[in-house]
Specification:
Number of strands of chain B: 2
Shape of chain B: globular
Order of helices and strands of chain B: HHHHEHEHHHHHHHHH
Largest sheet of chain B: 2 strands, antiparallel
Helix content of chain B: over 70%
Structural class of chain A: mainly alpha
Number of helices of chain B: 14
Number of helices of chain A: 18
Strand order of the largest sheet of chain A: 1-2
Chains: A mainly alpha (about 450), B mainly alpha (about 325), C alpha/beta (about 270)
Distance between the termini of chain B: 46 Å
Shape of chain A: globular
Number of domains of chain B: 1
Mean pLDDT of chain B: 90
Strand content of chain A: under 5%
Largest sheet of chain A: 2 strands, antiparallel
Strand content of chain B: under 5%
Oligomer: heterotrimer
CATH class of chain B: Mainly Alpha
Chain lengths: ~450, ~325, ~270
């Protein structure tokens, strides 16, 4: 089978799954799967750059995705003026103090010679800096969080477009690349540290940073309300209610003979799908061009023979850092898109199995090192994830129909059907690794 | 008196909980470190192996309690523990036979095994959830305390009390026995030494007539025992929830790596270091300082350095600081 | 990129999740049987052809033999297949054609572990000790296949290498190069082998230590154990050799006693610098 035939068949199969869901079940579900699938595909593209092209083991995808989500809040939500007035300046000052202390620590460490004097100064600076930071920062935070805590209690975002930010409907789209930048910044800091150590500790570092990012998001209410969640994020697409009130839309729907409510929900989802698809296609083209550019060839040369590449004067650590930052930025971008699609920011929803390891399954199943494989893997695995959750219980009821109606086994099997997702994902991953270790679309 | 009160307070709220938590992490990290040393990869399924062993133990405990068999003041789970270990042993041997063995024959690179362990992690995670559900389960029975606050206050006449829960005492005793047994096994028995030899130099072990398959089997069995013990101790001390066990992976990995991954002594040191750091940094120390510092310097705030949610951040910061200064961990890693 | 997808690690060398330096040997699989081969030399690799894995042949019909009481030496230029010939005789790689016979038995199909049981002792060129284990534990591991009391053997080895007795509780990785080689030889002697194979025992040690090691090897040979040895240091090796093989490109180029080869003008010109 040629590569292009294989790619074509795989694309057709994934399309069939999603269209089949639409035809056989309902189009709303099919479009929900498609939208989240497109976002998953972007995440898979990011991880595939890191793992496929550079062999970097990033198990902190969740953290970068969540940072993207944070960007959505910080950019697309309207600002809370009272909160800014109450403690905005003080909080930012506190953060500035914290940053200054860290810069100072690094400077002292680098400038002073090794010895007791340096250690003492470092220790004193740490303790003094920490308390100075906490004193200023905590006061500001308390002031912000006391502003109408049930509704706001945080600084809000930068969307000055009207009350709910609806007038500036394009702000969420601005937020997506900003999410990428935020993730890139975090990735740079963590990569600089973890890849700079004498041996490579990226896996544990990313595992840790992801948990830390989630802890910050859950805790720092002044920033994004923590576990109180931010809801009602502005949309880059029309609202269903607005469409249903729009005479132009209604007459168009009437011509098609569809119920306006259903039509409006589908139209909104289609609009999202279009937006996401544009981003995905652009990223995919960029990734493909990068792969076949001199830069991509160099990355593969480093991956396949690091010693030789190093001998030829390539700065391997720097290249690794570069690709780690780019891959994480793509994950951040996808994370921002997802929070916009969700319409809310819920830090407690970020689970490593779903946001880190599932993306890994997508990449490995699709084909490590193959961008198109990763994208299709993302759509396929996402469809499977939803399908098992959606149809699993029905399937279980059908499978256990032979059992007595009030048998305990039957009840527990039906109860546990939602948990089958994990079993299925693990089994798929293990089967692919065993029988098709290069994935469905192997790297050329 | 002030000093003693402060010390007792600190012991009660920081030292004793951290010792128990540290012992649990240490046993967990020992399992991770053994797999790393012998099979050469970090097992992402370890947290879920712990969860599975604990789940089996909980089910058996329920059966035992149901037929009226208990251990008196001790938790019944201790009686069920051997069954849990045996079931987990069968599970990991089965997994090895069905999954990992193929990759050993292929001489697969360790990072491929890491990805394989991600698959095993998903499967075990689903299996455990299907088996026991996702609820929070308390399964500690028997006496709740070895020493209660009142008893302690009455005995010592101090203002502050010290309570030691049965589960904490059991954790420390079991951990001590487990660690002693493991070290005796690794350093004194022929099989244990052959495991160390295999970890040190696979080819030479082969030349010496050491059977790699046997080494791997024994390793998995020990890992199953360690995982189940760690999981049951943690569950007795706190509670059982499948998802929490998965999340223990980070502090356990951090402990193993801080200590020097592949080094059992390091795993134990790392476990306690991480536990103490987490508990100290996230506990409000106001009262201790009020006792210890002169009145004029008594703190106003709670002196809780970081909120409890940041405990993972603490594990991670410790890890980073240690690695910056000692790249192979506290004890030289990569060997047992 | 490797041909085997399971061996493709994409250049990942993340120390927090993977341990480097796994086994590299591709030994003959377990479960092979021997067949009688009477009338052959004590140990012989007879017209061996083979290489590593699916790679090209390195040995081309190479024959090496050693008889009881002898020191046999393999010399030759870099890349001649000296170590490979030795490994082939020990079952560390597949011999595609040819046979290995020991003490009247064809052992070609035996795994290295089974060859140890049959009485072969092998000291690899590098990574030949357990660095994290004590000297004594190294010797114990050498005796792993023995279920009888091996304290006598250990005492004999301590007599042969007194410095090891002194350092017996030290991790072997902390010893000097010459001492490490003694541990390596001692480990191989713990099985009381019927034949000892040494792959460049003097690689990387100073000339004084080298002399001492040669003396020790002669001492071992005097106890009646035949020795087959690969040596880089051709002149010194030929001087102590009862039998010597010169390999070139995986095939026998010259064979004779050590003295004969030392006197052979071809050998002198090519390998001994005139």
């Amino acid at each position: 089978m040629t590569d292009s035939l294989r790619t074509g068949l795989f694309t057709g199969f994934v399309a069939l799954l999603i269209l089949g869901t639409g035809f056989l079940d309902n189009w709303n579900l099919a479009l929900v799967i498609l939208n989240y699938g497109l976002i998953s595909a972007i995440m898979a593209l990011g991880v595939n750059l890191q793992w496929g092209l550079a062999g970097l083991f990033n198990v902190g995808v969740m953290g970068f995705v969540a940072l993207g989500g944070l960007a959505s809040v910080l950019i697309s939500m309207p600002p809370v003026a009272e909160a800014w007035a109450a403690g905005g300046g003080r909080t930012l000052l506190g953060l500035a103090i914290g940053a200054a202390v860290i810069v100072g620590l690094v400077a002292v460490y680098k400038r002073m010679t090794k010895g007791r004097a340096r250690n003492i100064i470092l220790l004193l600076l740490t303790v003094a800096g920490f308390f100075a930071f906490r004193t200023v920062f905590d006061g500001g935070v308390a002031a912000i969080e006391s502003v109408n805590p049930s509704l706001t209690g945080y600084l809000g975002g930068l969307n000055f477009g009207g009350d709910a930010g609806r007038d500036w409907w394009w702000m969420p789209i601005i937020a997506w690349p900003v999410g990428g930048l935020l993730a890139a910044g975090a990735a740079w800091a963590i990569g600089k540290t973890a890849l700079g150590l004498r041996s490579d500790y990226l896996a544990i570092a990313t595992l840790g940073i992801a948990e830390i990012i989630i802890a910050v998001l859950k805790n720092e209410n002044w920033m994004s309300r923590g576990v109180l969640n931010v809801t009602g994020l502005p949309r880059p697409v029309p609202y269903e209610t607005d469409l249903q009130a729009d005479p132009g839309f209604l007459s168009a729907v009437q011509d098609l003979g569809v119920d306006p409510t259903t039509a409006s929900t589908i139209a909104v989802k289609l609009a999202y799908a279009g937006l996401f698809a544009v981003f995905l296609v652009v990223l995919l083209i960029l990734a493909q061009r990068a792969l076949h550019s001199p830069w991509g060839r160099m990355m593969r040369a480093i991956r396949d023979n690091e010693v030789a590449a190093e001998a030829m004067g390539k700065d391997v650590t720097r290249r690794h850092l570069q690709i780690f930052v780019i891959g994480s930025a793509i994950c951040g971008l996808a994370g921002a898109m997802m929070t916009t699609l969700d319409g809310q920011m819920t830090p407690a929803a970020y689970q490593p199995l779903r946001f880190t390891f599932l993306v890994w399954v997508m990449v490995i199943v699709g084909g490590s090192g193959n961008n198109i494989g990763a994208v299709l893997g993302g759509l396929l695995i996402w469809w499977l994830w939803v399908a098992v959750g959606e149809y699993g219980p029905d399937l279980m009821i059908w499978a256990t129909s032979g059992l007595h109606a009030d048998s305990a086994l039957k009840a527990s099997l039906i109860d546990s059907a939602p948990q089958m997702r994990f079993l299925v994902m693990g089994t798929v991953l293990l089967l692919i690794l065993r029988f098709s270790p290069r994935g469905i679309l192997p790297e050329k | 008196m002030e000093f003693l009160n402060g010390l007792v307070f600190l012991t009660n709220f920081v030292i004793v909980p951290a010792l128990a938590y540290g012992a649990q992490l240490a046993i967990g990290a020992l399992g991770v470190t053994l797999v790393y040393a012998i099979l050469r990869f970090s097992n992402f399924a370890h947290g879920d192996t712990m969860a599975f062993g604990t789940a089996v133990t909980i089910k058996v405990t329920a059966v035992l309690v149901g037929i009226g068999v208990t251990l008196g003041p001790l938790p019944t789970a201790l009686l069920a523990l051997p069954v849990g270990i045996a079931a987990t042993g069968l599970l990991v041997l089965g997994t090895d036979w069905l999954v990992y063995k193929f990759y050993r024959v292929q001489k697969a690179k360790p990072v491929i095994l890491v990805i394989v362990s991600l698959g095993v992690m998903f499967v075990l995670n689903g299996l455990t959830r299907v088996f026991i559900g996702v609820r929070d389960i308390q399964f500690a029975d028997g006496a709740r305390f070895v020493i209660t606050v009142q008893q302690f206050k009455a005995a010592t006449g101090l203002d502050e009390g010290l309570a030691i829960r049965t589960t904490q005492a059991i954790t420390m005793v079991t951990a001590a026995i487990t660690v002693a047994a493991l070290f005796w096994f690794l350093n004194k028995t022929r099989t244990g030494k052959s495991m160390r030899a295999f970890s040190d130099n696979e080819d030479l072990a082969l030349l010496s007539g050491i059977d790699p398959d046997r080494v791997v089997r024994v390793t998995w069995l020990i890992v199953a025992a360690l995982a189940t013990i760690a999981g049951v101790l943690y569950g007795l001390d706190k509670s059982f929830k499948a998802f929490t066990y998965f999340q223990l992976l980070l502090p356990i990995f951090a402990a193993a790596i801080v200590g020097g991954i592949g080094n059992p002594v390091g795993a134990i040191a790392g476990g306690f270091l991480i536990a103490f750091a987490e508990v100290t940094v996230t506990y409000p120390l106001k009262k201790v300082l009020t006792y210890w510092l002169p009145e004029s310097m008594a703190p106003e705030g709670l002196v809780q350095l970081l909120s409890g949610d940041y405990k993972f951040a603490v594990s991670f910061m410790i890890l980073l600081i240690v690695l910056l200064f000692k790249p192979t961990g506290l004890f030289k890693g990569q060997s047992i | 990129m490797s041909d085997n997808p399971y061996q493709d690690d994409r250049g990942n060398k993340d120390r927090s999740i993977t341990k480097s330096g796994g086994g590299t040997a591709q030994p003959v699989a377990k479960g092979g049987k021997t067949s009688p081969a009477p009338g052959t030399p004590f140990l012989i690799g007879d017209s061996m052809t083979g290489g590593y894995g699916k790679g090209p042949d390195i040995l081309h019909g190479c024959t090496i033999a050693v008889e009881p009481g002898e020191i046999a030496v393999i010399v030759g230029p870099n890349g001649a297949g000296k170590s490979t010939a030795m490994k082939a005789m020990f079952g560390m790689l597949d011999v595609r054609s040819g046979h290995v016979m020991l003490d009247g038995e064809d052992i070609t199909a035996l795994s290295p572990q089974d060859r140890v049981v049959k009485g072969m002792g092998f000291v690899p060129q590098t990574h030949n000790i357990f660095t994290s284990m004590t000297v004594e534990e190294n010797l114990e591991m050498g005796a792993f296949i023995r279920r009888d009391d091996f304290r006598d053997t250990m005492a004999q080895i301590y007599d042969l290498f007194p410095i090891l007795k002194e350092k017996r509780l030290q991790p072997a990785g902390e010893l000097s190069g010459g001492q490490r080689q003694q541990v390596a030889v001692g480990r191989a002697l713990m099985t009381k082998p019927k034949v000892l194979m040494l792959d460049e025992p003097t690689a990387g040690v100073s000339p004084i230590v080298m002399d001492e090691l040669f003396d020790r090897i002669i001492e071992v040979a005097r106890t009646g154990i035949p020795i087959l040895m690969v040596e880089q240091n051709a002149r010194q090796a030929l001087e102590i050799a009862d039998k010597a093989y010169v390999l070139v490109q995986g095939a026998n180029a010259h064979t004779g006693t050590g003295k004969e080869l030392l006197a052979n003008p071809d050998v002198r010109r090519s390998f001994l610098g005139g």
